[in-house]
Amino acid sequence: MDETWMRVMLDGRKIGSMHTTRSVRGEQVITAQTMDVQLDRAGVKVRLSSGETDTETREGKALAFETRTAISGVTNVVRGTLRDELAVLARPQVLRGLALTVLGFAGVFTVFTYIQPLLLRVTGVSQNAVSPILLVLGAGLAVGNLLGGRLADRAPMRALLATLAALAFVFAAMHWMIVAPWSAVLFVALLGIAAFATVAPMQLHVLEKASGAGQNLASSLNIAAFNLGNALGAWAGGLTVESGPGLQSLGWVAAAITLAGFGIALWSSAADRIGARLRAPSCDAPANA
Questions:
Q1: pTM of the model
Q2: Residue 37 is inside which H or E element, if any?
C-alpha cells in the first residue's frame, strides 16, 4: 500500500493534516483521502473532517465511491456506484432542473456580453466611465449571491420563483433605464443583484432533486448547464444585435429567455405538489356503526 501524509497550513501555521492511501486488491484499485483540520473561530475550536474513497479497475474504470464530511460532530456520508450516479439522469425533475438552469441564466449573458456597447452607444457614457460602472455590477453580484443564499435557505422553491421573476423584471426595465447615465448605473446594480440571486436557488433545486448518490454528477452537470446558458445567451444577444431590432432590445430578449426558465420552475413546482399528493397516505372513511 502506498501512502502520503501532508500538512494543511493556514497563515503559516499547521491546522491539520491530509492522508492519502492507494492499494491494489485483486483487480480493484482503491484510493482513499482524508483531511482533518481544526479552526479557531472567536475562541471556539471547530473541527472539520472530510474523506473520499474511490474504487476503480486497474484500467481506471470507476466502480464505486464514498464521501464523508463531518463538521462539529455532524457527519454526512454518501455512497454509490457509477450506475447510481448515472441513474440520476433518468429523473425528470433533475432534467427539468438542468433545463431551468440553462434558460434561467442564459438571459444574463444576453445582456452582459454587450454591456459595454450598451453603455457607450445607447447610454452615451465615455469609455473611462465603463470600468467604474462595471465595479457597480460586481458589487451587485456580491450582494445578490448573499441574498440568494439566504432566500434559498428559508424557502427554496419560493426563492427560485421570486428571483427568476425579479430578474425578468429587471431585464424588461432595461429598455427605459439604459438610456440615461444615472438610471443605467441603477440598472447595472440591479442586474448584478438579480442575476446572482438566482444562482443559489437553482443550484439547490438540482441538488434536492438529485438527493443520494447522484448528487455529485448532478452538481457537475449543473455547472455545465450554467456555462451552456452563458453560451446560449451570448448567441441570442448576437443574433438580436446583428439581425434583430438592435442593442436596446436585448433586455426584452433576455426577459423572454428568463421567463422560459420561470415557466420550467412553475412546472417543477406543480410536479412536486402532484407527487406529494400521490405519495400522501389515503385515509378511509370510518365505517358506520
A1: 0.73
A2: strand 28-41
Helical H runs in the chain? 82-87, 92-112, 115-117, 127-154, 156-177, 181-197, 199-209, 215-243, 250-279
3-state DSSP assignment of residue 121: helix
Q: Which amino acid is at 143?
A: V
Please give the grid coordinates belonging to residue 8. Answer: 494543511
- For residue 29 the three cell numbers come to 484499485
State how far the Cα of 158 lies from the Cα of 156, in Å rounded to an integer: 6
Three-state DSSP class for residue 213: coil
Which whole number is the average pLDDT over 242-263?
94
- 269/272 Cα distance (integer angstroms): 5
Higher-confidence residue of 64 and 286: namely 64
- Spell out the residues 6+ positions from residue 16 whose beta carbon is closer than 8 angstroms to its own: 7, 8, 35, 36, 37, 38, 48
Close Cβ partners of 255 (under 8 Å, ≥ 6 residues apart): 107, 168, 169, 171, 172
